[in-house]
Amino acid sequence: MIYSIQTILLAISMGQEVEPTSSSHLASHERVAPSQDIIRQPTSPEEPTPFCNYTNYNETKAQDLAHVLMTNYSRNALPEPNPVNVTVEITIQDISDISAITGTFVIDFWISAIWLDKRLKFSHLDPCRKNLSLDHDMEPKLWSPNVCIVNSKATKVHDSPKPNILLMIFPNGTTWLNYRIRSEAPCTMNLERFPLDRIECHLILESYSYNAAEVTLQWLAWSPVSAVREDFNLPDFKLTNINYGSVTEVYTAGIWHRLSVSITFERLYGFYILQMYLPTYISVFISWIAFWMDTRALPARITLSVSSLMALTFQFGNIVKSLPRASYVKAIDIWMFSCVGFIFFSLVELAIVAYNDKITDQRNRHSKRESQDTMMPREENVSFSNGCNGDHRCTRHARGAVLMDNVTRSRMSLQDGRNSPVARFTRRKKPRNEFGARVDRAASIGFPVLFAIFNLVYWTYYLSTPSMPSQAL
């Protein structure tokens, strides 16, 4: 990209026409007319066109030429009394990190500022030189528009090993200043659709030192914003669109020209499908196994439901740790709370069945106790003193004989009662717990059907409805 711009600027310095071309990396454009002063600087009729004689050409050293140009040069004075037209171009080199916690992204890019400074014109001094490339040490000595990223949280110029600053001057005085920068800039996030959301990251460029009365900023017409590649291999996001524009901002100190770049990323939700959605599916399905178990296997059924609920809560906690605190409901919140609701209502179903079993057992124990009391014979009061005349041994013998006779008759009565038609009819008609089985059968059908309907509505809404636009600049 740098070499293409250099070729264009060489053509500009030679007075050739350049046809603007569109950038293939951009989805939408706002065309801004390029500066006519930069595109072509015609030679005045009084000034003869410099001619390069290669036969007697003796190349002037760049240091000597720069020394001559800096004579009587002041970096504090504007190149011309009218507002200086500064053309800006950005080439994105890499996007290395997007943080949802801090709401920022890290971007490496080249930024070029191009303007015309007639005081640096050297075509009359060295007609054969096509451009004058200077070291980064020369940059502080020249006037520059001081184009900066006003919304960045941290910005630095790369050192590898020297500062990556390119300063190039063309014969007609066109100056090209290029930096390779790493910047941390803010992103606008709307997490209502997380993890099926999109984010927009913004770069805002202004001339920090000069207002619109002194400097006007505009995008380079044929390549305002471009990228070296389309895929930056981000783990969670995919670059989908780049927009750029220009606005005017009013400050207390005056009016400033502002250039803006909006980079749109779409979140890749494959990670969340594997790490969040599938485990929650499994937790909900495990809680349904209790519907096919015996209603009296209460410990096993409770263990299944409670374990599923704890696993779901643990998964949700891990996801929340990687997100910023938001006061609105997100798509993941709806999913997790719905799954928790399905598991909770399975516990409610378990409680209903267990309570019914408890009431049934109490009724059965009460009926059994009443039947046993009815079948037991009453003991008759027998006088053991008659016929014994006070003989203690006779009395004890008579009492034992009576007791054995009562026990024998009781056993015979119980046996006859069990074998009686009434007892057999009672055993056949003993009520069994059919209510709990019916509830489990209904739950085993109703819960999967309701969960399938919820999935259909959830995925249809979030996959078909486009993301809400982020907040405008």
From TrEMBL:
Instruction: Cite the entry's keywords alphabetically.
Output: Cell membrane, Ion channel, Ion transport, Membrane, Signal, Transmembrane, Transmembrane helix, Transport
Disordered: annotated span: 363-382
What InterPro entries does this protein's entry cite? GABAA/Glycine_rcpt, Neur_chan_lig-bd, Neur_chan_lig-bd_sf, Neur_channel, Neuro-gated_channel_TM_sf, Neuro_actylchol_rec, Neurotrans-gated_channel_TM, Neurotransmitter_ion_chnl_CS
* GO terms assigned for molecular function: excitatory extracellular ligand-gated monoatomic ion channel activity; transmembrane signaling receptor activity
Biological process GO terms, please? chloride transmembrane transport
Q: Where does this protein have compositionally biased stretches of type Basic and acidic residues? A: 363-381
What residue intervals traverse the membrane?
269-290, 302-320, 332-355, 442-461
Q: GO CC terms on record?
A: plasma membrane; postsynapse
Instruction: Say which domain of life the source belongs to.
Output: Eukaryota
Annotated compartments: Cell membrane; Membrane
Membrane topology, as annotated, equals: Multi-pass membrane protein
CDD domains attached to this UniProt entry: LGIC_ECD_GABAAR, LGIC_TM_anion
PANTHER family per UniProt:
NEUROTRANSMITTER GATED ION CHANNEL
The family assignment reads: Belongs to the ligand-gated ion channel (TC 1.A.9) family.
Q: What is this protein called?
A: Lgc-52
Taxonomic lineage is: Eukaryota, Metazoa, Ecdysozoa, Nematoda, Chromadorea
